[in-house]
Amino acid sequence: MDYFVQQLINGLSLGAIYGLIAIGYTMVYGIIGMINFAHGEIYMIGAFVALITFLAIGALGITWVPLALLLMLAASMLFTSVYGWTVERIAYRPLRSSPRLAPLISAIGMSIFLQNYMQILQGARSKPLQPILPGNLTLMDGAVSVSYVRLATIVLTLLLMVGFTILINRTSLGRAQRACEQDKKMAGLLGVNVDRIISLTFVMGAALAAVAGMMVLLIYGVIDFYIGFLAGVKSFTAAVLGGVGSLPGAMLGGVVIGLIEAFWSGYVGSEWKDVATFTLLVLVLIFRPTGLLGRPEIEKV
Amino acid sequence: MTMPSHTASAAVPTNRAVDWPGTLRDAGLAAFVALLLTLPLVGLRTIDRPTGLGIEARPDEVIASIVLVFLGRLGLGLIRQNLALPVLVLALACAGVGLVLPMPTQVLRLVLVAGGGIIALRAAITLTTGRSKLSQAERDRRMDRVAVQVQHATRYIAPVAIIGAAILPLTPIADRQILDIGILLLTYIMLGWGLNIVVGLAGLLDLGYVAFYAVGAYSYALLAHYFGLSFWVCLPLAGLLAALSGVLLGFPVLRLRGDYFAIVTLGFGEIIRIILVNWYQFTGGPNGISGIPRPSFFGIADFTRTPSEGMAAFHELFGLEFSSLHRIVFLYYLILALALVVNLFTLRVRKLPLGRAWEALREDEIASASLGINRTNMKLAAFAIAAMFGGFAGSFFATRQGFISPESFTFIESAIILAIVVLGGMGSQIGVVVATLLVIGLPEAFRELADYRMLAFGMGMVVIMLWRPRGLLAHRDPTILLHGGRKPQAQNAGAAR
């Protein structure tokens, strides 16, 4: 039982991270119908910006941990969203009306570019970081210990989800975003600046991915320039699993994948956890192609 | 065909006053974005210290990139407002200064030369074509005409290219390095042609083609390792096994559409790789398999000085001096033949009901289903055949390298092969060759640039897609027309659509 709870919490925190990245995929897919292949790289950039910010404020002599974490979060979200915006502006916007494959290839190119860009700038070796937020919370008479970082990840993700849901459902920006998702041309005719909304979608996705990157840095304490690929693929899997285009679905898919990974590593062995994830993806797509919470897509001739 | 170009030039404002504040603001905005982009990642570098990670500031590089972006954006803005000539002169002056005068850092020199060069090139193009910016559609039509011309010229180019490739090893320039690059290029051309069957003909987006390449390579390596089978026995077996795995994967997922299909194939590619890594008792895990036997001369002769039991030595059989180059030349011809088989297959199958069904499925799935085409079987056939060719290429790769490990079969390989197909123009056989020369040949030629190679590779993919979203030599003529109507006029009209 203790072991189960331990894995449950590990899985939840991991799933929260996948979910945060998956939201970026699902929103972009919902609005312009393309797989933003470079999104995993955006998450990697978020992790690196967080690391560099921490080192920079350390060099400036700020040692109060809450302030340091807050600065890391702010810097990571800010700078990473600029990357998200730029990627969209350079590589995707000119291809808005092109055949479907063109933006995908452009995105793969961007992903290769960003990976090597980071490798050249920051070096190929993995970057270790000493724990910033050490300490554990012990539950169930000391049988289960939850690190504060994992707890913070879950709490922060919940807060972001609440804020994000309000943003999408209650504000005019969210309304415009949903309108574009349904019909870009019509939304444009009604005075919505579609290009701006798409840019903002990328910015929001990148900001959430940046949070995920920072949390991974805090939990695992080591990052390298290659972390984006696998996390990106798994998060896209999460988005598909939950139903592409659905925000709660992305979060749900992320949590499911995180839990599968944690339990598989805990009970079967960590070597095959990725196979389990992808097999699940194949199974879901075969038996429920629209995902868990997705709407069926009706094709008109 | 003159109408569109006329309207395009009329759309350009003539002799309007230069909008300085707007242009400057635009350039300033771009520079600000550049500042935000470069500040954390370019300006601050992590360095490994004995005590842990340290950090180091590089303000000069940040400033250099901001200046580059500002001037570049300004230059482009001015070119658009009929100031191409002064911009050209200034940009050339910048590049010249960067080349000649001593610079404090290499970065600054690079910024001046590369930035000045690109802007100068842009300005020069504008001056020579007399138009500041072609519309996307107009540019596309022009490239379509080029594509059609190339497609027509292929009739004459292709035999020349094939004969050229065939006599290359006999010419004096063919040293080890040239032949190795030739083999590499031909391998990718073969993979590109194989994937073209799935992507270009059947219109299925396969992001995991490397899985079949891996299946082929490991089939040969493992069969040779455990059963001591020779290359010539294993080649068909590897193709068969790869085709089988294609059917196994294809059967459940071919019902999926578009991007879902793409992501499942990607997942499948990763699964294969993870199995290869983790099943180390059988596949050797991350260490791979080494000592894979080299191919013999059709089972008759060996390419070694001292052949094994029951084999003749190749050089003795033909009365030649022993040379280690013989094997390379043989491998070169082998992959050339394999690649040509794939090409021939594609060219012929397009004229068969099977190939026409694929093209119909690519254009409109529902329409072809209502015409009685069995979608799943057709797609499965495309998938299995492409997988088989991937398997052939894989076992060739294994025997050439003599060593394989899962590292050779990562997603990036799939992405490169897909990029070759899409950049060349989906469905275009000659496009695959051109794109391979670009994608594999160019980076190979600049091998000493090491890390920057892949950086440029990624950027190149983006740039080509922006410049020509449908691929360099894309064109979609129906392979067979009714009433034998193969007039070039009709094709032109079809392509310019």
Describe the protein.
The complex is a heterodimer of chains A (301) and B (497). Chain A has 301 residues and is mainly alpha-helical. Chain A is built from 11 helices and 4 strands, in the order ααααβββααααβααα. Chain A has helices spanning 2-32, 39-60, 65-92, 101-122, 148-170, 172-182, 184-189, 194-220, 227-242, 247-267, 273-287; strands spanning 127-128, 136-139, 144-147, 222-223. In chain A, the strands form 2 sheets. A two-stranded antiparallel sheet of chain A has the order 1-4. In chain A, strand 2 and strand 3 form a beta hairpin. Chain A starts with a helix and ends in a 14-residue tail after the last helix. Chain B is mainly alpha-helical. Chain B has 2 domains: 12-133, no CATH class; 138-495, Orthogonal Bundle (ABC transporter involved in vitamin B12 uptake, BtuC). Chain B is 70% helix and 4% strand. Chain B has 20 helices and 6 strands. Chain B has helices spanning 2-10, 20-41, 59-80, 84-100, 106-129, 136-167, 176-201, 210-227, 231-253, 258-278, 280-283, 314-317, 325-349, 353-363, 365-370, 375-401, 411-424, 429-445, 451-467, 488-495, and strands at 44-49, 52-57, 289-290, 301-302, 312-313, 403-404. In chain B, a hairpin with a 2-residue loop joins strand 1 (44-49) and strand 2 (52-57). In chain B, helix 2 runs antiparallel to helix 3 (59-80), helix 8 runs parallel beside helix 10 (258-278) and helix 13 (325-349) runs antiparallel to helix 16. Chain B is globular. The model of chain B is unreliable at 1-14 and 486-497 (pLDDT under 50). At the A-B interface, helix 2, helix 3, helix 4, strand 1 and helix 9 of A face helix 2, strand 1, strand 2, helix 10 and helix 17 of B.
